[in-house]
Design a protein that fits this description.
The complex is a heterodimer of chains A (281) and B (407).
Chain A: E1 17-22, H1 45-62, E2 67-70, E3 86-89, E4 92-95, H2 101-116, E5 120-122, E6 136-139, E7 142-147, H3 155-163, E8 166-171, E9 184-186, E10 191-194, H4 201-210, E11 213-216, H5 219-223, E12 230-232, E13 235-239, H6 244-252, E14 256-260, H7 263-266, E15 277-280
Parallel strand pairs in A: 1-2, 4-5, 7-8, 10-11, 13-14
Antiparallel strand pairs in A: 1-15, 3-4, 6-7, 9-10, 12-13
Chain B: E1 2-10, H1 17-27, E2 31-38, E3 47-55, H2 58-70, E4 74-75, E5 82-85, E6 104-108, E7 111-116, E8 123-127, E9 132-136, E10 146-149, E11 154-156, H3 167-170, H4 181-197, E12 201-206, H5 209-212, H6 216-224, E13 230-234, H7 235-247, E14 249-250, E15 253-254, H8 267-278, H9 281-286, H10 294-300, E16 305-308, E17 320-321, H11 324-335, E18 338-344, H12 348-356, E19 362-367, H13 370-378, E20 384-388, H14 391-401
Parallel strand pairs in B: 7-9, 12-13, 12-18, 13-16, 16-17, 18-19, 19-20
Antiparallel strand pairs in B: 1-3, 1-4, 2-3, 5-10, 6-7, 6-11, 8-9, 8-10, 14-15
Helix pairs in contact in B: 4-14, 6-10, 6-14, 7-8
The chains are: A alpha/beta (281), B alpha/beta (407).
Chain lengths: 281, 407
C-alpha cells in the first residue's frame, strides 16, 4: 500500500514538499493536441523564458520551496509541463501513459529521472491512458480523476488497487478543459476552485457531495486558466487578470494571490499548475 | 433484440458513474438488466457490477457500447483472450477454456477470430504466427501450444431459433413417445432435401438394430438415392448387414421367415470370417462375394464409412478401427461439411458422434428407447430432435416421404 498520509490524516500541503520544473529552452508549439494549440500562433521564446523564470523565482525566493530541475530535451517541447509526468505518492511514481504519440517520448525521460532518484516506478498497462497530475488531484484523501480526453475511465480501478484510496472519476465534457487541472483546483483539504461548465450534471453532483466547499469560477476566469493555479500552503499562484469576485472569494478564505503573466504557456493550454510537479523531498 | 454483457468496476457509486451508465443506456434507446452488483464495504473499496445491455438493433447496441466504453464499462468479451503455453503433450494448462459445440469466436490482437472445427469438450489453440484459432482435442495438444484460458475474450454465439416454423423448432421440446410421428418424419424428409440442396452432407450413424428390425433395405435405398454422404457405425452394423446379405439372417434370425434358422447362431461369425478372408469389405465387394446390403451399397456408391470398434466386438471385420482415438480422428475428418446427422438405433456411436458435432448441425436421433434420445440431449447435443420409433418403421416412412421407389 502506498500512502501519502502515514498517520491516515489528510495533509495539505505536504510536510516535505519539493517541486519539479523544466526550463522552457526547447518550448514551442510544434503540434496541435488541444484546442489552445495553434502552430500558427507561435511562442516567443525569450518572453516564455522570462515568464518561467518569474515563476521559478517566486517559488524559490519568496516562498522558499525547493525546486528541482529536469534537463530540457530537444524535440520534446511539452516537457516543460512537468505536472503531466505522473503521480507521485510517497516514494512511488505512477508514470503517465500519454494518449498522444507526440508526448509519449517524455515518458522515458520522467521514468529515468525518478528511477535514478530512488523512486519506485509504477507503470500501468499500455492500453490505459493516464496523464498523471494533469488528471489526478487530491482533495483530502480522495483522489479526483478527470477522464475522457486524455485519461481513460478504466484506469481509476487500477489506481484504486495501487493506492487503496477513494478515487472519484469525473467526466470532462468541454474540449478546452482537456485535463482535470484546467477546470478543478484543490485549495486545501475542503475547498476547490472549479469551473462547472467543464463537467456534466453527474460531475456537479459528485463534486458538490464530496467537496465541502466548492468555489465555482466564471467562464471568463476559467478561460484565463485560473483553475490551473499552483497552491502552496496559503499561496495561490495563477495567471494574471483574475476577476474581482474570485479574488474576494479567495481572500475571504485566507489565501494570498500571486498573479503572474504566463500568457506564453497559455498558447499550449497550460498555466502555473501545469509547469510544476509536486514531489516529496 | 441483441445484447452484450458489460462489466464496470471501481468507485462507481460515489462518482455517480453507475447511474450515469444506466441513464445513458436508456437515453440511447437501450435497455439494461443488472445481473450482479457488489458494492464496496468501505469508502476505499471498489464496487463491481455486471450488466446485460440490450438494444433493438446491432447498430444501436454498438452506439451504446461505444459510449459505455468511454465511461469505463467494457464488454466482457472485448477483452483479449488469455493464452497460456502448455508444458506437456496432451495436457492443457489447468485453467483451459473448455469448448461448447456452439459457434465460438476469440478476441486476439483486437480482432474477433472464429474458432475452426468447433466441437464440445476441447480446448482452443491460437497460432501466434497466423493468428488462427482452432479447436483442439486434449490428446492432440502439443507442448508449447498457446491455449486459451479463462472465459475472457471468448464469445459463444447461441443458436437463434429459426423464424420459420420448421421441424426443428416444432420438436425442440422434450423427447416423448407421444408425438405425431408421421409429421415428424415428414419434417425430417424435408430437412434432408434442403440439406442436400444447400450442398451440405448428410451423415447417418447406424446401429445393428437397423438390420435386426428389417430396415436394411430402406437404408440401402437412401444410400442409392444419394441421401447419405457418409456412414458411421460399428462392427455390429456391418457384421449383421453382411450376415443378412450372405445368409439372409440377422443374429441367426431369418429376416424373411420370421423364425430362428437352424444352426444360424454362428452365421455372423462365418460372415466375419468370410470378409476377413477377402481382406475387407471393399475387397469382398470387388471379388463378388458381397453383392447386396448396406455396406455393399456404400462401396458401390463410393460412400465413405467409418466403423469404430468396441471391446465386445466379435472378429472384428478388417475395416473396423480398433484404436478409439484413431477412429475419433477419422470421424472428425469425415464430419467436415456435414449439415444433418441422422442417428438411428445406436447409443454409443450416436453419443460419440454427438460429441464431435457442431451445434449448427441438425441432428435427428431415432431410437425405440426414449432414454437414448434423452441421453444424447443431456450430454450437450441440444440441437437434436428425438423420435421414439422402431428403426425399420422410421426408415420405411422416411423412404415413403422422400418418394424413393420400391425395388
Amino acid at each position: 500500500m502506498i500512502s501519502n498520509y502515514p498517520d491516515g490524516k489528510p495533509a495539505m500541503p505536504l510536510p516535505s514538499l519539493a517541486l519539479l520544473m523544466c526550463r522552457p529552452s526547447h518550448y514551442t508549439v510544434a503540434y496541435e493536441i488541444n484546442p489552445w494549440m495553434k502552430v500558427t500562433r507561435q511562442v516567443h521564446q525569450p518572453v516564455a523564458a522570462r515568464q518561467w523564470q518569474a515563476l521559478y523565482d517566486l517559488l524559490t525566493r519568496s516562498l522558499r520551496v525547493p525546486v528541482r530541475l529536469l534537463r530540457p530535451v530537444k524535440g520534446l517541447p511539452d516537457l516543460v509541463f512537468t505536472a503531466n509526468a505522473g503521480l507521485l505518492v510517497g516514494k512511488a511514481f505512477i508514470r503517465t501513459n500519454f494518449r498522444h504519440p507526440e508526448r509519449q517520448g517524455e515518458e522515458v525521460i520522467f521514468e529515468r529521472y525518478f528511477r535514478r532518484r530512488g523512486y519506485r516506478v509504477v507503470t500501468l498497462p499500455r492500453q490505459f491512458n493516464f496523464e498523471g497530475e494533469g488528471d489526478a488531484l487530491w482533495v483530502g484523501d480522495t483522489l479526483f480523476l478527470g477522464f475522457r480526453f486524455r485519461t481513460d475511465a478504466t484506469v481509476h480501478e487500477h489506481l484504486s488497487k495501487i493506492l487503496h484510496r477513494r478515487i472519484l472519476p469525473l467526466e470532462l465534457v468541454d474540449k478546452r478543459f482537456y485535463h482535470l487541472d484546467t477546470c478543478f483546483c484543490p485549495l486545501d483539504a475542503t475547498s476547490v476552485l472549479w469551473y462547472p461548465g467543464a463537467f456534466d450534471r453527474y460531475g456537479w453532483k459528485a463534486i458538490e457531495t464530496h467537496v465541502p466547499d466548492p468555489v465555482p469560477v466564471s467562464t471568463a476566469d476559467a478561460l484565463r486558466f485560473c483553475c490551473n493555479a499552483l497552491v502552496i500552503d496559503r499561496a495561490v499562484i495563477l495567471h494574471g487578470g483574475v476577476s474581482k469576485p474570485l479574488r474576494k472569494e479567495l481572500e475571504r478564505r485566507g489565501f494570498d494571490l500571486y498573479e503572474l503573466d504566463l500568457s506564453e504557456f497559455l498558447k499550449a493550454g497550460g498555466s502555473a499548475k501545469c509547469l510544476v510537479l509536486r514531489m516529496t523531498r | 433484440m441483441v445484447s452484450e454483457i458489460v462489466e464496470v468496476s471501481g468507485h462507481i457509486i460515489d462518482s455517480l458513474i453507475l447511474p450515469k451508465i444506466l441513464d445513458e443506456i436508456i437515453d440511447l434507446d437501450g435497455n439494461f438488466e443488472i445481473l450482479e452488483i457488489a458494492i464496496g464495504k468501505r469508502k476505499t473499496d471498489p464496487s463491481t457490477t455486471r450488466l446485460r445491455v440490450s438494444a433493438t438493433s446491432e447498430q444501436k447496441l454498438q452506439v451504446i457500447l461505444k459510449r459505455l466504453a468511454r465511461l469505463g464499462a467494457t464488454p466482457l468479451t472485448l477483452r483479449e483472450v488469455e493464452l497460456v503455453r502448455t508444458r506437456q503433450d496432451g495436457v492443457f494448462p489447468s485453467q483451459f477454456y473448455s469448448t461448447t459445440n456452439l459457434p465460438t469466436f476469440v478476441r486476439y490482437q483486437e480482432r474477433w477470430r472464429p474458432v475452426q472445427n468447433i466441437e464440445m469438450d476441447c480446448g482452443i489453440v491460437i497460432d501466434p504466427h497466423t493468428s488462427r484459432a482452432s479447436c483442439v482435442p486434449m490428446v492432440h495438444v502439443k507442448k508449447g501450444d498457446h491455449v486459451v484460458c479463462g472465459t475472457a475474450g471468448v464469445r459463444v454465439t447461441p443458436l437463434e431459433r429459426s423464424r420459420h416454423k420448421d421441424v426443428f423448432q416444432f420438436m425442440g421440446s422434450a423427447v416423448s413417445s407421444e408425438k405425431p410421428k408421421a409429421l415428424l418424419i415428414e419434417g425430417v424428409a424435408k430437412a434432408m432435401g434442403s440439406t442436400r440442396r444447400a450442398g451440405q452432407k448428410i451423415l447417418v450413424v447406424g446401429g445393428p438394430a437397423i438390420v435386426h428390425t428389417g430396415g436394411g433395405p430402406y437404408l440401402e435405398r437412401l444410400i442409392e438415392a444419394k441421401y447419405v454422404d457418409v456412414l458411421f457405425g460399428g462392427n455390429g452394423l456391418a457384421t449383421h448387414d453382411i450376415e443378412s446379405a450372405l445368409y439372409g439372417t440377422s443374429l441367426g434370425t431369418s429376416l424373411d421367415r420370421k423364425a430362428a434358422a437352424r444352426d444360424a447362431h454362428e452365421h455372423h461369425m462365418r460372415a466375419i470370417n468370410t470378409i476377413r478372408a477377402c481382406g475387407g469389405i471393399r475387397q469382398a465387394v470387388r471379388q463378388g462375394v458381397l453383392t447386396k446390403g448396406i455396406m455393399h451399397a456404400c462401396v458401390r456408391h463410393r460412400i465413405p464409412f467409418v466403423l469404430a470398434g468396441s471391446i465386445r466386438d466379435d472378429g472384428p471385420l478388417p475395416d473396423v478401427i480398433t484404436d478409439v482415438m484413431t477412429a475419433q480422428d477419422e470421424m472428425r475428418h469425415h464430419l467436415k461439411g456435414v449439415g444433418l446427422a441422422l442417428m438411428i438405433a445406436s447409443t454409443l456411436h450416436a453419443i460419440a458422434t454427438g460429441n464431435l458435432l457442431r451445434a449448427t448441425v441438425k441432428t435427428i436421433c431415432v431410437d425405440i428407447n426414449p432414454a437414448v434420445v434423452t441421453k444424447l440431449a443431456d450430454r450437450g447435443t441440444f440441437q437434436g430432435i428425438g423420435i421414439v420409433s422402431d428403426a425399420a418403421s422410421f426408415l420405411r416412412e422416411l423412404c415413403h416421404d422422400l418418394k424413393l421407389p420400391r425395388r
